[in-house]
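This is your field. Have a critical look at the following sequence-structure pair:

***
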Amino acid sequence: MTERTSYLTAAEVRAAQVLHQRAPYALTNVSCSFFNVARHYGALTFQGCSYTYMPGHDECVRDDVLRLVTRMRRLKAKAAAPDHEQMALPIEGEPT
């Protein structure tokens, strides 16, 4: 049996602590629980919060946490990407 991994990293879980605490930020082992229906519909609502099912990790992540994590990952990827010089297009009449 392989070890289950979470969709969220430890740093992302710490960042999610600033969001509301009325409902859990993630529901794990969804296929073995009452929340099994999320596998079929791709989402669920629990305690008034919407969750999205992550099939690769068998867990549901709260939508506001998912937005925060997506933004964090996008900014991290953007910061890691090298800056590219803008290529100048040749102007008609000018020697190249």
